[in-house]
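note to self — DONT lose this again. spent like an hour looking for the file last time. sequence + predicted structure for the chain T wanted, 142 res
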Amino acid sequence: SSTPHQEKLQTASNKYSEVYDQINKSVKVQKIWQFLEPVFHTADIAKKMIQESKKFSQIEKDWAKVIEKLNEEKNVIRCCENDMVQQLLKSLEQGLDFCQKKLDTYLETKRREFPRFYFVSDTEAVSYTHLTLPTILLVQVS
């Protein structure tokens, strides 16, 4: 049988473990968002990936809500235990994963059309997708 102290320690340990998980999820969401944000703000991607761009726009609004709550609530434990924050982080993680996979698929088709794209980063590949073939060659040569 456990003592009252063991039960309190277990409860605290569980709480801190959940807080740790929420912080890790926040960091993961922020990293993916920071990578995708400039990509989905390009006119070319907005035109060619309409549904994904709309999805990303909603993700940005939800991410702003999370950030607002983080700024509002100075206690990290209460913030991580907040139902809205937990639900939005889960939704953001799933939505960003979806957008990332769709972008990867889009870029793979572009790489098949123009194999030099295999040798550049995703960000560079996105910046070239709206250019014509002769322009791409000039950019790659210079």
